[in-house]
Each structure stands twice: as C-alpha cells, then as structure tokens.
Amino acid sequence: MDTTQLLKGVLDVAVLAAIQDEDGYGYDVVRRLRSAGLDDVGDASVYGTLRRLYSAGALTTYVVPSDGGPHRKYYGINQQGRAMLESQRASWATFASTMNGLLDTKSRPQPVRTIGEK
Fold first, then answer.
1. Is residue 40 one of the residues assigned to a domain?
2. Which long-range contacts (CB under 8 A, 24 or more apart) does 79-82 make?
C-alpha cells in the first residue's frame, strides 16, 4: 500500500506528537518521525507542516546559535498545540477503531446465505 496519501492526512498530528515532549528543529523532527517508522515522510512536507502549525498558533519558535553551521530554528508545542493534539488523538482513535473493524474479517459477521446460493 502506498502510504504517502495516508501520511498527508496525519502529518499534522504526527509532527505535534513528535515534539510534544521535547522541542526540535526541522531536520530533528524529520529524524524523529522516520525513527518512529514513518520512513516515507519528506523533508519539505515536515518543514511546511511546522510552518503551518506555527502560523495556526499551535507552536512557538526560537533560534539557537550553532557553532558548526547556520543557526537552528526550534519549534515547541504550546497550549493550543496540546489541545489540538488531544483532539486529533481522539479523532485518530475513533477512526483507527472503525478501520480495524472494517479490515478485521474475523470479527465481521458473515452474511446469511440461502440453500443453493453461491
């Protein structure tokens, strides 16, 4: 299954979850997502999501000087972002439960067939 379309629908919540415990700069967030198993996540998609979440008021930013290169812009989740994460976490749980029910052939009731029906 091509997961790129699925990933587009859940990238906001994935990014919020990736920085819920510790602030991170762009590529650091990309690495966190990939190490969590989202191997297909694109750098540009994550950077765009961080900027969009910041513009929406869900994240704060600050710049940290770097000795070995350009300064790094760190993103941190704020109260609005935590509320957004909790709401999306609940939506995801409901959605995942529904999909699991649809995909789990063992728990689905089998249709009743009449004699002679194929």
1. yes
2. 81/16, 81/53, 81/57, 82/20
- The H or E element spanning position 73 is strand 72-77
In a domain, 114, yes or no: no
Closest C-alpha among 71, 87, 94 to residue 16: 87
Q: How many domains does the chain have?
A: 1
Is 118 within the bounds of a domain?
A: no
Count of CB atoms situated within 10 Å of the CB of 71: 10
Q: Give the tens place of pLDDT for each residue, 50-93.
A: 999 999 999 999 999 988 888 999 999 999 999 999 999 999 99
Is the confidence at residue 118, as pLDDT, over 80? no
Is 76 inside a domain boundary? Answer: yes
> In terms of residue numbers, what domain contains 87?
4-103
For residue 63 the two structure tokens come to: 């710049």
Domain containing residue 79: CATH number: 1.10.10.10
Q: Which of 70, 69, 82, 17 is nearest to 46 (CA)?
A: 17
Question: What does the alpha-carbon distance between residue 34 and residue 76 come to, in Å, rounded to a whole number?
Answer: 19
